[in-house]
Amino acid sequence: MNKLTVRVADWHADNADLRRIREAVFIVEQGVPPELEWDADDVDAVHFLAFEGDFAVGASRLLPDGQIGRVSVLKDWRGLHIGELLMQATIAEAERRDLKQQKLTAQAHAVRFYERLGFRVASEEFLEAGIPHVEMVRDSA
């Protein structure tokens, strides 16, 4: 396995990789309708890409209000801590921007993953795109 890295992505320059990953994970694998996956927030978000060598295998985004989302890792690369690397980079950028609280909408099966990163559940379970989710928040130190 090549070295795993995460970097800030450019929505325009890196659009093909961002779309390839999110389409594979959310639209194809999880059945999220494309009109729910793509939104106007993408233009103003800070995007992140995770790479194995020079191949993009994961993505996430940070909105100006501290909302983290679209955390996705291609199926064949799961279990290699890529999601954790993406989240660490995203949280670090939020803190660098002095966003005292980070928020996210977690799929219910991923709650423990986010709890390990300092998030806590802040809502009852609800359905989003037909998938059980909960709101979670993390306060910066």
Structure characterization notes:
This is GNAT family N-acetyltransferase. Pfam families: Acetyltransf_10. Residues 4-141 form the N-acetyltransferase domain. Keywords: Acyltransferase, Transferase. Its EC number is 2.3.1.-. This protein is α+β, with helices and mostly antiparallel strands. It has one domain (4-139): Aminopeptidase (3-Layer(aba) Sandwich), CATH 3.40.630. It contains 5 helices and 8 strands, in the order E-H-H-H-E-E-E-H-E-H-E-E-E. The protein has helices spanning 15-29, 34-37, 41-44, 82-96, 111-116, and strands spanning 4-9, 46-52, 55-62, 67-73, 101-107, 120-121, 126-128, 131-139. Strands 1, 2, 3, 4, 5, 6, 7 and 8 form an 8-stranded mixed beta sheet that branches. Strand 2 (46-52) and strand 3 (55-62) form a beta hairpin. The model has no long low-confidence stretch (mean pLDDT 95).
Helix-strand layout with pairing:
Elements: E1 4-9, H1 15-29, H2 34-37, H3 41-44, E2 46-52, E3 55-62, E4 67-73, H4 82-96, E5 101-107, H5 111-116, E6 120-121, E7 126-128, E8 131-139
Parallel strand pairs: 4-5
Antiparallel strand pairs: 1-2, 2-3, 3-4, 5-8, 6-8, 7-8
